[in-house]
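Thanks for the sequence, V.! I ran MADF domain-containing protein right away. Repeating your input here for the record:
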Amino acid sequence: MASSSTKSPPEWTIEKVIEFIELYQAHPIIWDATRKDHKNKNLLADAWRTIQQNMGMNFSIEDLKKKRESLMSTYRLYRKKISDSTRSGSSTDDIFKPNWFAYELMDRFLAPIYDKSDTVTINTEVR
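Predicted structure:
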């Protein structure tokens, strides 16, 4: 019987996702577009290789990038829900509170990046 040459995707347990997020956070060259080296392909590749080596070789760089996109998509969805709930003029009890296990961990380092792009400055100073 011939064996399949296709590799099955790695298993993403909650612990592995948390480990990945922590490694991802440790490499801001990947996620912080304000860094001068953010577009340096060699440094980016080095950062992804380091994450891969720490995660274990059963995770390809492609697997890691797919997981990053999935996590970022979910993170942005929750940020939008929070933003929408605060714009409606609702009380603090009505503000959406995400219960997704990865939100707080990701928000710790991504919020400043997203807050810069989301912020609209309104002068409320009374003269």
